[in-house]
Specification:
The protein contains no helices and 2 strands. The protein is mainly β. It has one domain. A hairpin with a 5-residue loop joins strand 1 and strand 2 (23-38). The radius of gyration is 21 Å and the shape is elongated.
């Protein structure tokens, strides 16, 4: 039995012009994290090159 953990993250940046002529940068970020247990063993390479 082993621990399975991974994270996924995304960051998006958008620059827009405001009504008063100034520019604004908007940054949106989303992240996911999953942690759990697994009975599966990782597949190992059979040959070394």
């Amino acid at each position: 039995m082993g621990i399975l953990a991974f994270s996924i993250a995304e960051v998006r940046t958008n620059t827009t012009k405001l009504a008063n002529g100034r520019q604004a940068e908007m940054r949106v970020s989303t992240s996911f994290q999953a942690i759990g247990w697994t009975d599966e063993r990782p597949e190992l390479p059979t040959h070394r090159y």
